[in-house]
Amino acid sequence: MMSEITVDGKLTLKRGASSKILMKYMDHATEILLHKTRAACDAIMVGSRTIQIDNSFLTVRLVPGKSPLRVIPSSMADIPPDANVLGPDAPTVIAVCSRAPEEKVAMLRARGVSVVVAGEDHVDLPLLMEKLHDEFGVRRMMLEGGPTLNWHMLHHRLVDEIRLIHLPFIVGGADTPSLVGGMHIEDESQMIRLALSSHYMCGTNLVTEWRVLYSGKGGDTSGGDSGT
């Protein structure tokens, strides 16, 4: 998982705002780090809501290298027909559930993307990871998700590492999206624990890197090999 966040852990200025507004304040050296990370991965994943708001390309542009496979979980195939991820810049997989409207799935396939059915009522993320591994050769994936997708990937223990680009701002807001949403834990035993593996300055931005520790019967373990 890789994301830029403010000092108070926010991803955007307010709910519904594009994350690109904050990303333009990243140091150029950090932008290069972002694209180097993309180039080092087999795939990159964001949620359909991020595509609707940001309309990202999710390609490698600032450094030499091949753009990774773009993966968008969208249970009901709700991808705008003019979305940049449907363009020819890089291969794209749209993951849907079996209830996705046939006309929307047909539109996506007509645009040349691969549509993968993973789950009945919603996208089953562990099943999707298996399909990406077996059918597309994905071994290392970069997650640039919003709070909901980030939570579900962590909940299913599909994230091994977290890299954060810290922006020197505070934006506030009770409903402003933060790095992880969806968590309604009962007590501290349900917290997801991290171990700091590295921290450094990249241009003017602090970058921290964390290993995710999942508690289980056998003690703390890391997640699967498809997430990052």
Task: Describe the 3D structure.
The protein has one domain (2-213): Dihydrofolate Reductase, subunit A (3-Layer(aba) Sandwich), CATH 3.40.430. The protein contains 6 helices and 9 strands. The protein has helices at 20-23, 28-39, 48-54, 102-110, 125-136, 147-155; strands at residues 2-6, 43-45, 69-73, 92-96, 114-117, 141-143, 161-167, 193-202, 205-213. The strands form 2 sheets. Strands 5-4-3-2-6 form a 5-stranded parallel β-sheet, with helices on both faces. Strands 1-7-9-8 form a 4-stranded mixed β-sheet. β4, α4 (102-110) and β5 form a beta-alpha-beta unit.
What class would the helix/strand composition place it in? alpha/beta
CATH class: Alpha Beta
What letter string, H or E per element, gives the SSE order?
A: EHHEHEEHEHEHEEE
> How many strand elements?
9
How many strands, which pairing sense, and closed or not: the largest β-sheet?
5 strands, parallel
Cα end-to-end separation: 5 Å
In total, the number of domains comes to: 1
Give the overall silhouette. globular
Query: What's the helix count?
Result: 6
Give me the CATH superfamily: Dihydrofolate Reductase, subunit A
Ranges where pLDDT stays below 50 over 5 or more residues in a row are 217-226
What CATH architecture would you give? 3-Layer(aba) Sandwich
- Strand arrangement across the biggest beta sheet: 5-4-3-2-6
| CATH topology tier name | Dihydrofolate Reductase, subunit A
- Overall pLDDT metric: 92
Helical proportion?
A: 10-25%
Cα-atom radius of gyration: 17 Å
Percent in strands: 15-25%
